[in-house]
Structure formats: structure tokens, C-alpha cells
Amino acid sequence: MGISTMIKKISRKRNIEKNIFSLKNKVAIVTGASRGLGKAIALGFLDSGAKVVLASRDIEKNKKYYGKNSLLINTDVTKNEDLMNLINQTMSKFKKIDILVNCAGFTKGKISQNYSETDWKQTMDTNLNSIFQLCKIVGTKMIKLKNGGSIINITSIASVLASPKNPAYNASKGGLSLLTKALAADWAKHNIRVNNLGPGYFNTELNKNSWNNQRKRKIRSNRTLMKRWGEPNEIIGPAIFLASNASSYVTGQDIYVDGGFLIKSL
Known about the structure:
This protein is of the alpha/beta class. It has a single domain, classed as Rossmann fold. The chain has helices at 3-18, 36-47, 80-94, 117-145, 167-187, 208-212, 214-223, 236-243, and strands at residues 27-31, 51-56, 70-74, 99-102, 149-154, 192-199, 254-257. Helix 4 packs parallel to helix 5 (167-187).
């Protein structure tokens, strides 16, 4: 091999490594994008070069945060007509879908014997049923386009740990974790990767009751190896990893971003 050929190969390899986390020209849909982790992920994707479709029931109020490479669509993920509108608008503007992040979530704490059917259904519809419907729609589009893709489902440490007074949330997140693996098994042959991203305790709207309770906040901090709660921007890196070519051989996995919460023993 000549020196010039070797230099070209090394240069090409370095360029691949340099761009391995890039989302340039990728089209991503992020649900639950108006606040918390969904908002952080959407902004992180935009900064990494992606075109981002932001979906939420109240996304319009966040217009000032997003630029020309974004599309904002008011979406109630529990309504199939809203999901179809989300996909149709995305395809109309960007012609493809490379990445889907399911971050919309709901929780209603109540002891099991007093848990109402209404609260159970709302939790399941938001955290599990709607995600399957959207994955099915997007997965079908990805298969038809033959470009592969990455689907990231936001689970929780509650998918493997029992939380008192929250049976529906535990059940929905545990179910979502296994749903992800089932979809990964079905779609790997189409180069569609499906993974779980499981947050620990983050300072977000969803966790505001625990955050605002000094005793609960301290208990959760002490249980965490890093002795603190996460900030929303700390979910961006793991999300970009799963969305980008950096994770091209990763599918059906649970990746927890929890400051070491799950592995703590004594």
C-alpha cells in the first residue's frame, strides 16, 4: 500500500470518527417536547444538526426556543388522529423520519387499593398504548423508506424498581421496556434500532412533587451514588448516542441515566 493511499484511509477513518455523533440531515420526532427531558432532547438534537419535529399538547407556547429546522405540532399522543396528523405533517415537510423519541409521559400517585380505573387507563394510554401506536406508524414508514432508523423510548428506573403508591406508572414503564425489546426483535432486519433510555431522578415538571419535598429530595439524593438529582441537559448525550451512528450496533437495550441509583447496595 502506497503512502498516499494509507494517508487517505486514515483521513477517511478520522472523518468518520469525527462525525459519528452527528445528526446532520437526520429528521427526528420528539414527543413530550414542551418541557423537561423531551425539551432538552429536542434542543440537543437541533444543536447536533437534526431537523426536529416537536410534538406536545402545548408546544405552540415554546415557539421562541426553536429555529427554522424545527416543526411544532400540537399533539395529544392518546388520540390516533393526532398521531396520524403528526406523521403526515412530518412527511409533508421533511419527506422522511430517521429518529423517534417517545418522551410524553404521565403519572398519578395513589395507593393501589384506591387507584381508579380512569387514572389507570390514562397512565397506560399515555405511557404504553400511545407509544406502541406511534412506533407502529413510524416503524412502517421507516420500513417503506428502506433507510433504517432509531427509536428511543423513555422508560424509567421505575421499569425495574417498585415505587410505592404508583402501580400504573410501574406497570406502564415495565411494559414499555419489554415492548421495546419486542420491536427491536421484529425490526432489526430492517436496520431499525429500538432502545430504552431510563432516567433516574431528574429536576423536571414530572418530578416536581418529590423535588419540592425536602425530605423526599434528600432521600433520593442519598440513594444516588452521585448524591444529587440529574439536570435535564444531562439526558442529551445518551439520547444523541442512541440516535446517531455511534450506536449502530446497539438495539433492544436498556440504558439508565440515573447517577448510579440502580446499582447502589449498602
